[in-house]
Every structure is written in structure tokens, then in C-alpha cells.
Write a structure and sequence with these properties.
Layout (H helix, E strand, L loop, with lengths): L1 E7 L4 H12 L4 E8 L6 H7 L3 E4 L8 H14 L4 E4 L8 H7 L3 E5 L11 H7 L4 E8 L9 E8 L6 H25 L11
Parallel strand pairs: 1-2, 1-4, 2-3, 4-5
Antiparallel strand pairs: 5-6, 6-7
Bound molecules: 5-O-phosphono-beta-D-ribofuranosylamine.
5-O-phosphono-beta-D-ribofuranosylamine binds next to helix 1, strand 5 and helix 6.
Length: about 200
Amino acid sequence: MTRIVVLISGRGSNMQAIVKACQSGDINATVVSVISNRPDAAGLTFAKENHIHTAVCDHTEFANRDDFDGELAKLIKQAEPDWIVLAGFIRILGAELVQQFVGRMINIHPSLLPKYPGLNTHERALAAHDDEHGASVHFVTAELDAGPVIEQVSVPILEGDTPDSLAARVLAKEHGLLVKAVKRCVTGDVQFTPSTAV
Ligand code: GRF
């Protein structure tokens, strides 16, 4: 059975969508561990209730990024994953860590990449008066939010939208998008080609 590790930082609704799709057989895989960089991440409760192994790698307890990345890499490897899914994981990973998992680590990002890598994507799409916004699932490479895109979904930006209303509209589409992308990865329908890495 294909083994998936999910990295989260908070609510974990995208992680829940993956777990449920695995439980229902929609994705032919098992979530073997949920790792959070925040001990208070709400998603950890859902994982525990679903008898999934959890681990915390609290970034505030490390003197520097390399030490944090080293511990995180150790926790990921212990779970022996085929795929690593960053689902609302709000930490930048160093090149050395990324290199160890390149080609089998994916991330969901709330924008139509290559637009708006980084934070505050909803605010930035509104400030730019864009007509549409959305989310992308992409392979993780050393450059932030710049790896090859696997799947995207767009939503309209409506008159009177606020960052919160827009975020909610995007999130409602993220779950299906992520399940679709993970499914493609697990079935081998999509593969990372180094030459396509940005
Ligand atoms: C999602 O919008 C994700 O794209 C972004 O952070 C949010 C996390 O939501 N990176 P959740 O924790 O999956 O509910």
C-alpha cells in the first residue's frame, strides 16, 4: 500500500480530505503519519481520532533552520513514505531537506501559480483587481512555490469580496483539487521531471 505523510501547521482541512479519500478507497493509499510544526495544530486531533500516527516538530524549539529541517527529515523518513504532502504547512523548507524528497513531495498553495508565491495570496489577488483566483498543487523544489504544477483550480473574484470570503471560496475547491492531485501521484499518472522544475 502506498504510504503518505502529511505535513500541517493548523486546521488541517486539506489533510482531512486526503485521509477521508484514503479511507473511502478513492485514493489507494494510507496516511501513515501527520506531522505538524505547531503542537497546537487542530488537525492533530483529527489525526489522532482516526488512529493515525502523529508527530510534532516545533520550530520554536530549534536554534536554526538547519536543525529544524534535520529533525523534520528524520521524522518523515521514520514513517517510510512514498509521498509527502504539504497541506497547509506554513514553514519554508531548506534546499537540503527538499533535495532528499524531490519528486515525491507536493504542496497545495492558494493561488494560480506562478502568480503570488508566498503569503497573503488572497489579499494580493484582490489588490491586483484580478478577475479570478484559485489554488495549485505542485511538486516542491528548493525555490518557494515554484516547482512544476500538477493541478490547478480557479474561482471567480466577486464584487465585495474580502480576503476571508475569497479564501473560503478557494478552500472549498482545494480539497477536491488536492485529492485529485494525490490520486494522480499515487497512480503514477504524473511524475516529476527534473527538466520541468523551475
Ligand atoms: C489552505 O488554504 C492552504 O492552501 C494554505 O493554508 C490553508 C490551510 O488550510 N497553504 P487547512 O489547514 O488545510 O485547513
